[in-house]
């Protein structure tokens, strides 16, 4: 928590401590342990989906895909896809929001829209990811 210098991560830009989630700065915080569990799960993944888009974070995505010493040290060769921006819609669906969605869809070219729902768990098999990548490419 007393980190004053940027946090150095091999092959990546240093991160200022004020740009890190507070729980990640306190090893006694229960969320710190949960974030580490999530990070370890990423290493076991077939693919990684990032809620961003190429034009916004081109350098960061390149680093994730191409890696460097950190990725090599972790033996991480996981395909990474930018799939954003993903925005959580309000839980309450109104007739007007449904109508505006249908209107927008009607204005799109035939077969130009792909709807993907990851559900609440966000689990996608490797085969499904390859199929999705085919449609998005």
The poorly predicted ranges are none
Note the gap between the termini.
43 Å
Question: How much beta, percentage-wise?
Answer: under 5%
Give the strand line-up of the largest sheet.
1-2
Mean pLDDT: 75
Question: Could you estimate the helical fraction of the residues in percent?
Answer: 25-40%
Integer-rounded radius of gyration = 19 Å
Number of helices: 5
Total beta-strand segments? 2
Structural class based on helices, strands and sheet pairing: mainly alpha
Largest sheet: 2 strands, parallel
Elements, N to C (H/E) = HEHHEHH
Shape: extended
Q: What's the oligomerization state? A: single chain
Report on the structure:
With 137 residues, this protein is mainly alpha-helical. It has a domain at 45-136. The chain has five helices and two strands, in the order H-E-H-H-E-H-H. Strands 1-2 form a two-stranded parallel sheet. The chain is extended. The model has no long low-confidence stretch (mean pLDDT 75).
